[in-house]
Every structure is written in C-alpha cells, then in structure tokens.
Design a protein that fits this description.
With about 200 residues, this protein is α+β, with helices and mostly antiparallel strands. It has helices at about 5-10, 20-25, 30-40, 60-70, 75-85, 140-150, 160, 170-175, 175-185, 190-200, and strands spanning about 15, 45, 50, 75, 95-100, 105, 110-115, 125-130, 135-140. It is built from ten helices and nine strands. The strands form three sheets. It has a four-stranded mixed beta sheet with strand order 4-5-7-6, with helices on both faces. It starts with a helix and ends with a helix.
Length: about 200
C-alpha cells in the first residue's frame, strides 16, 4: 500500500490505533508504520497509536490525543483549571484522570500524565466539542478542583489553598458550589470535605 492511499483513508480519524488500520486492510504491513514514522510522515503517540504531523498545527488537538491514547480518561486537575482560566499559570503538560493505572507518555504532541481513580470516582466530566466536531472529555471546573485535592492530599491548610491563586471572579460568578456539594456527597470523604471548606473560606464562598 502506498502512503497517499493510507493517508486518504486514515487522516480524517486524526488519532488512530493499529487495529483500526487492520479492520480496513487486514493484510496491512505494519512495517509501513515504522518506515513512515522514520520519514516524518507519521507520528507515533504511544505503542500502536499514531497520528499525522499536520495535526500539530490544529488547536486543541493535543487534548484530543490525551483522550484517545489512554481511555477511558478525561482532562482534569491543573490542565482543566488552566483551560477554564481558574489559575494564572499556563500548563504545558496535559493531566487526565483515568480508571486505568497511572501512566505517562511523551510524544511530538506533548507530555501526557494520567492519574488513577477508582471507578466510582470517574464522573464529573462533560464532552466539549472542538471546532472540527471532535469531542473532548473534560472535567467540570468543580470536579477538576476536587480531583486536584483528592489526588494531592498534601494540600491541607488555608495557605495551601491561597497558593492556588484561583481567579476570584470565576469563583464568584461561574463556579457552582451546589455542584461541588453534590460531588462531595457522591465521593463521601469527610477529610476531603474539610479541605474543601478551607478552600471555600479562603475564596469567600
């Protein structure tokens, strides 16, 4: 199979697994993928996952990669807080929550971290639509903050909460304390609720 035929078929998928190729062409020579990666015609994302270098110019495509190469997962913690404008820092690496084991991958699209939670805690995400119509699994602002506190129990004191430097306008006008409370009831951790109460006190909520 020539590369142009392969690209015409697989490019619209964006990020694909070798099994998707084999479903299309069962006799496909896997060595083609290695050769095309060496020539810069393909990008290897992780074992058996690939994309095309042209997608590096597509806004938010790295977030789509984060969802695809280790599923199920949704973008959360600092990555989501930065996306919503809740923290001042621009986050380079993408951090997601998953029910799979904790993992890290690096490729041409960035650095991707995945932190494990138990299946009952895998909730509180929405599907955001990219300009090209692809959907992204993203934590709500409230769940992103809870994931951050839950997975990093060393954030304990009011001083720790102040150091988040959460945007006060967002917290007052867009952050839902009702949704936060619903999530806390679902998680059922008294310790987490105490830490959240400290955070709410710091930000006047």
């Amino acid at each position: 199979m020539d590369y142009l035929t392969f690209k015409e078929r697989m490019y619209p998928i964006g990020c694909f697994h070798i099994n998707q190729v084999l479903l299309w062409e069962k006799d496909f020579d896997r060595n083609n993928l290695t050769r095309w990666c060496q020539k810069g015609l393909l990008v290897k994302l992780r074992n058996q996952y690939y994309s095309f270098p042209e997608y590096r110019q597509v806004p938010d495509f790295s977030r789509f990669v984060a969802n695809r190469i280790y599923a199920p997962s949704y973008i959360s913690l600092h990555s989501a807080l930065s996306f919503y404008g809740m923290i001042p820092e621009e986050v380079v690496q993408l951090t997601s929550v998953t029910t799979l084991k904790t993992a890290k991958f690096e490729n041409a699209f960035g650095t991707f971290h995945y932190q494990n939670v138990k299946a009952p805690l895998f909730f509180g995400y929405v599907i955001k639509t990219m300009p090209n119509g692809r959907g992204l699994w993203f934590a709500t602002p409230e769940k992103a903050l809870l994931d951050l506190l839950y997975l990093n129990p060393f954030y304990k004191t009011e001083q720790d909460m102040e150091e988040f430097r959460l945007d006060e306008d967002f917290m007052l006008n867009e952050f839902s304390t009702e949704r936060l409370d619903d999530y806390l009831k679902r998680i059922g951790s008294k310790t987490l609720r105490q830490r959240v109460n400290r955070l709410l006190k710091v930000y006047g909520l």
